[in-house]
Amino acid sequence: MVRRAVEGTEEPVVIRGLVRFLDERSGTAPFLKKALRYAFPDNWSFLLGEVALYAFVILVGTGIYLTLFFEPSTASTYYTGHYLPLRGHEMSVAYRSAVDLSFKVRAGLLMRQTHHWAADVFVASIVLHMLRIFFTGAFRKPRDLTYYLGLTMLILALLEGYLGYSLVDDLLSGMGLAIGYSVLMSIPVVGGNLALLLWGAPFPGKPDFESRMYVAHVFLFPILIATLLGLHLFLVAARHHTQFRESRRTTEKKVVGVPTFPGQAPRSLGLFFAVAAVLFLLGGLVQINPIWLWGPYHVAAGTNGAQPDWYLGWLIGALRLVPNFDVTIGHYTLVPNPFWGGALFPLLVFLFLYLSPWLERRLTGEYGFRNMLDRPRDAPWRTALGVALFTWVFIIFLAGASDRVFVSFGVSYEAQIWAYRVLVFVAPVVALLVTRKLCFALQQSERLGRIRKQAEAEARGELPQPE
Amino acid sequence: MKMRRWAIALGVLLLGRKKRQPRFADRPRIVAPGAPDPRAEWVALLLLLCAAAAAVGFIVVYSFNHLAHQTQYLGLALGLAFAFVAAALIVVAKRLVVTEELEEDYPLSHPTTQEEVEQLVEESGDRLTRKRLLLTGAGAAAGAIGAALVVPALSLGPLLDTGGFYETPWRRGVRLVDEHGKPLLLDEIVRETFYTAYPQGADKELLGSPLVVVRFEPAQLHLPTQRRDWAPGGVVAYSKICTHAGCAVALFRKPTFPVVEPGPALICPCHYSTFDPTRAAKVIFGPAGRPLPQLPLAVDSGGVLRAAGNFSGPVGPAWSGVRSKAPRNPS
Ligand code: HEM
Ligand code: FES
After folding, report:
1. CA atoms within 13 A on the CB side of B230
2. What are the start-end ranges of the E strands in A416-463?
3. Is the ipTM of this complex over 0.85?
4. Ligand nearest to the CA of B292
5. Containing structural domain, residue A51
6. pLDDT tens across A37-49, in order?
């Protein structure tokens, strides 16, 4: 053994054995070779999707640890642990077990906080990934299906995060659930019935509701996301990555990139460990959602300046901005107020995103395969419309934090809301016009640059280079 | 003696840098060649050892029973372990493996096979003479079985019976108590101070239970005429649940300098719906679509505040139809 290893033949023997074992039993050697030589176009923005993937892995890992200690029950109990401010308080078993997980279980707080940070980073990286897909036109055929799957995962990720912090039954959980319940109730005609179906009874609902959230959060949604994620990645690989026009070798027909092995593997694995490092450092060093400070939820309790996780801020903002009216017909209320901000607004945003590939095909008449990416300036209308939409969403997101601005800096809340109510209409239009102009200006200056270069080359007596 | 021989063998095994003879020299290379970089190898090795040390550190910190800032040290140790591995892998990626550029054809679609699939399916149905009828039958079976599988979901909640939304535990004569169950006495209610009250003996965790109770000078109140005697001694009571989205109306704005400051208000912290308690909780700002329902009050011979009936309207967030019925007591 020792001699063979020193001669350096040990390693190939192991590999040969492994590959032979696999191939003889599954016939996958050709596939394996192809997978190892799959070409990854080399661009940093392509790593955003991978960050989402790795955050998901960390979420599942830390989440499983949490399930070993968390008790999803709204049964009433009294806290008797070491944290003095809560001693003797009446609370649900769920909340007590989450407090114990933070203070009594060794490494419990690290896992809880890492899980929470991973959720925030997960959604953030999905959103950035989506922005890169949108603004480079990577959603066009043959990747529109990939794009729809991605959007669906984004929706599932938002719901999954909401369920996660609603489970704990601290004050913020309860306030968030009351709002979620009211938004569901506000759906015209059937809202009340749907809310009764999910909650089992008028808010705060039957005790079963906690079990329903729990099974959704730890089983249904993760499995759904994992399944869609598998399909998403399968489709990416099946059609290959898109690429930017970087050299004359990158064309609609040929993809140029670094092979999975040995080039891409250490980069991607390195990215995984980097994501894990950042998440565990955050989880250990930066406090997030200190539930023991919020206290247990009671329907009669509330606190000023409460904020949900960042990715729900746009919905809070929308709820804040709608003026005070319900749509009524005589004594019959048809559309309660939370519908506009809580339901219709996200519906419109996602509708626009889902329809984009189809809309673009209709508007440009381009029905063919598109493997080459646009730079944002190459598609001024798409870029301008996208910037307008995301400006709109971002302004509303900012409005969601106006209570914090009021509480921390004393800026009049009402003045802020009125300013946002105006901005919501003005900013997207301005963004649209400015972006379009900017795109054309960039194209123009590029054209001028090319002409100047050519003229200089000719002046020096060189032959003009064909593009 | 034996130990030393083993140590030497181990040293040779680990440190020996014998160049491996290429075993596939007779074939063209698949992976592009590159020059070795021993310095980078040492750096990668060092980083991996640091990762191992940090991971051991994690285990050591974990093994303490009580340690100040244990969570921070745990996170630091594990995070650093991962960070060192990440750094080692970056060194490997940048210096120890070649970065080749491959060209691959983008995959195409398969028009002939597509047609063959279509043909195959069509030919398979050749023997059927009542295709449409059979499809109708299959559709009926699928639809009915689908419906049968969905129906048990109705056990989740009373889908059609929305009567529960209108129920509250308040009725004529129910005493107002504080969160410890102590009755609220009219004389103990201080002017322009915020109280939370519950119905005596009822579940506090129902949307229909909690009240905000505030006292004003009777002359300050501008209630509708039919509610004129709902506020004995200037004490008004409203549902504490916001009519916007169900949060608790937990803030009270009391003007400290009434000449320039806006009037008193009940404010919901969730989206700052603002209600005027002197005018039957009219919405004066924010998104709520209707006022907070008011509870008529009375005072008994012992000076205790009691309900004089049920709320003026349904409690809490709205749903389609909310205003069409008055609140009632559970039967
Ligand atoms: C659960 C969240 C998601 C994960 C884990 C994920 C993961 C990935 C990964 C690893 C890739 C390959 C690397 C890359 O091109 O960036 C990818 C590609 C892609 N994703 Fe996602 N993604 C998610 C959500 C989304 C969303 C929300 C969208 C769009 C609405 C989307 C659309 C796409 C498209 C079109 C591609 C192909 C891009 C190309 O080939 O250039 N994905 N995704
Ligand atoms: S819940 Fe009270 S303002 Fe929205």
Report:
1. 25
2. none
3. yes
4. 2
5. 3-369
6. 999 999 999 999 9
